[in-house]
Every structure is written in C-alpha cells, then in structure tokens.
Write a structure and sequence with these properties.
This protein is an alpha/beta fold. The protein contains eleven helices and 13 strands. It has helices spanning 53-68, 96-110, 131-135, 153-165, 176-184, 222-233, 237-245, 256-280, 301-309, 329-335, 340-355, and strands at residues 9-15, 19-28, 31-41, 74-79, 85-92, 118-129, 142-152, 169-175, 191-197, 202-208, 211-218, 288-292, 313-315. The structure holds adenosine-5'-triphosphate and magnesium ion.
C-alpha cells in the first residue's frame, strides 16, 4: 500500500447535525486546488431514544466516501464546538514545565468531570504586561494568556470510530471553533466575530490576529427557524424548508416575527461577547462580523446582523483561497458558507504539511 496515498492531498470531514460535509484539497505548486467534495444529508436526528444513530451515521459516511474515492486516507475531523470547552486563562510568566502543572490544576475549575475523562490541550496565545503588578514593583510583571481547550475523551474515540468504519484514519481532531477561524479569518490582522449558524446550533467565535480568544455556543439554528415558519404559516416542515431555500425574505416582511426570535437570541449573545471583550481590552474594536453555516444563506440575514450589532457583517467565503474549475462556480457559490468547517479542517492538513 505504501506510496498509494498521496501526501499532498488533505481531507476534511465535518459531521454536521443535518449533513456530513467532506472536502479534499490538493496542494500543487503552492496553490490550493479543490480535488474533491461531497455531502450527504442525514435526514435523521440524534435523539435520546435512537440507539441506531451511530450505525446509521457510519452507513451514510461509508456511502459518501465510497462515492468520492478520496486520494488520501488521512482525515482531519471536527467535533461540534458545544461538545468542548475553550477558555482564555491568565498566568504569571513561568517555565513551560511548571505551566503544564499549573494548567492541569486550573483546568479542574472549568471541567466538571474527572480530568482522566477529558483530553486537554493548550497554547500560549499572548504575553502582556501587567501594569498593576509593575506598579507594585513585583518581579513577575509579565502575564501569559493561555487558551485552554478541553474535550471529552469518549467523544474523541467516537469520531475516530466513525472515520475508521469508512476505512480512513484520523490524522487530527479539533473543535470546529478552530476550523472556522482558519477558513474564514486565517491570518488576517484585526479582530473578527464569526457567527456560524447551522441546523441545530450556533457557534460564536471571536478571533484576534488569527487567534481564537472567545467561543460561545447557543442552541439556536436553522431547524428552529424552519419549525417556526411551519407552525406560524401552518404548512409542512418540508414546505417551510423549501420557502427558506428559495430565498423568501422573512426578515423584511410582515412575517418577520416568525424568524426574529431566533436571530435576536443570537444577536444578543454576540452583543454580550463584544461588550465583555471591549471591557477587558480597552480601546479595542471589532473590525467585522463574518457569517457562516447553512443559515448564513437566509435571505437578508447579513443586513440583519449589520443593524443589530452595528458592525459591518458579511457572509463568509471559505472558498476564497481555493482554486477550482470554472464549471464548479455555481455549485461552490450555492454551498458557500456551509463548507467553512470542512475547508478549515483540510486547511489544517495543509498547514501541518507546510510546517513539516
Ligand atoms: N438557502 C438557504 N436559506 C436559508 N437557510 C438555509 C439555506 N440553505 C441551508 N439552510 C439551512 O442551513 C441549515 C444547515 O446548515 P449547516 O449545514 O451549516 O448545519 P449543520 O452543520 O448540519 O448543523 P450543526 O452545525 O448545527 O450541527 C439548515 O437548517 C438549512 O435549512
Ligand atoms: Mg455545522
């Protein structure tokens, strides 16, 4: 088998609630080419009583992968943001070995279960002068900011198992928080707020100079909007979903009260994150808001957030650095921001490859 799988191909898999999305990139002469892509609608939900969920998911993944025939067997996969925890903690400057101990100790405050059941990783994201400490002539005036990331080990194992069932191997697993930041902001200077609205959940990520600083998740998404449309207009869910996808403007119409509760919930959480960030970092500002996920395609949703947050909001384009055949333009445009996570994952592969 050696040599059969090519090193310059990178595969990302996003296990979304409503669909699995897969993308493969090829790095060729410093350019990122779209090698392969695909998605499969799940059409079944993970509910408490559904013991067959894992089995079904594996069957769907296998079907999709068999059809796509990716060039590489190593994959980058994500876990939903809400299944993990991201927190920014400050420590006085200390040696790396001491830091490891200190962080594990500190992590206990954030993680409700035993640390044995949690997989933890961390990164130094910045050093800053602590003015208060300096005034008091303390020796350790420098503080370091650590981004702590924790995820339950059993979840990690579960995703590895899904991937294995499709004869693929997990190269790395990360919270989708980081995939979003990579594909939508990358190393753009400035501070951006990403709002990914999917089927079931919404993930809000504050990214400063390319580094994730805050992540909050709320239970609000496209499914709730569809339910509300169906209920209020007294139509089937299928019909409600179709209306949404046909581009009917619910936001700027007499029916705005149907979709606004969900959007207001998200906007209010975003406002809270922004105001906390400004309080902690005086003089700072948010340069832009970037929408992602399938619900970013809801008609008028960018204008809604521009007004609600008072910050210019755009629909994110995770494809902007990818080269693809012109004939694919319509489809790429159609899927657009739904592929932010999958592309961010494949881009992680590219980053690791370039570094090695
Ligand atoms: N053109 C469109 N207009 C409005 N909504 C859309 C459009 N296309 C897709 N959606 C909605 O996007 C949602 C799916 O988004 P996405 O694929 O990002 O979710 P997911 O990743 O499967 O779910 P989650 O991230 O919550 O696990 C669905 O609720 C769907 O109705
Ligand atoms: Mg998603």
């Amino acid at each position: 088998m050696f040599g059969l799988f090519k090193k310059n191909y990178f595969l990302g898999i996003d296990f979304g609630t409503s669909s699995i999305k897969v993308v493969e990139l090829k790095l060729h002469k410093q350019r990122l080419n779209l090698s392969n892509y695909g998605w499969i609608k799940l059409g079944f939900a993970q509910s408490a009583g559904d013991f067959d969920y894992d089995k079904k998911l594996k069957a769907y993944l296998q079907a999709l992968v068999n059809k796509m025939e990716p060039k590489t067997e190593s994959v980058y996969v994500s876990m939903p943001s809400f299944s993990g925890l991201v927190s920014l903690i400050e420590f006085p400057d200390m040696k790396k070995e001491e830091l490891d101990q200190a962080i594990r100790f500190e992590a206990r405050k954030y993680v409700p279960t035993s640390l044995d059941e949690i997989s933890i990783s961390w990164d130094i994201v910045s050093k800053k002068d602590d003015k208060a400490a300096k005034k008091s002539k303390s020796k350790t005036s420098e503080k370091i900011q650590i981004l702590l990331v924790a995820a339950p080990k059993d979840k990690v194992i579960k995703y590895e198992d899904f991937v294995k069932s499709a004869d693929l191997k997990v190269k790395a697993i990360e919270l989708e928080t980081f995939s979003l930041a990579r594909s939508l902001v990358g190393d753009d200077a400035g501070t951006f707020l990403i709002i990914d609205i999917g089927f079931r959940a919404c993930s809000i990520v504050l990214v400063e100079k390319g580094v994730v600083k805050v992540n909050r998740n709320i239970d609000a998404g496209g499914n709730e909007i569809t339910d509300s449309i169906a209920e209020n207009l007294n139509i089937s869910k299928k019909r409600a979903e179709d209306l949404k996808k046909q581009g009917k403007d619910f936001i700027n119409s007499r029916e705005s009260s149907i979709v606004l509760p969900t959007l207001d919930l998200i906007a209010n959480e975003a406002l809270r994150i922004i105001s906390t960030y400004k309080e902690k970092n005086s003089g700072s500002r948010i340069d832009g808001v970037v929408l992602s996920g399938g619900t970013a395609k809801l008609k008028g949703v960018d204008d809604y957030f521009s007004k609600a947050l008072g910050i210019k909001t755009i629909i994110g384009d995770p494809w902007k650095k990818i080269v693809y055949d012109e004939s694919l333009s319509p489809i790429v445009k159609k899927v657009g921001p739904s592929f932010s996570v999958a592309l961010g994952l494949a881009l992680k592969g590219v980053e690791e490859y370039k570094r090695s």
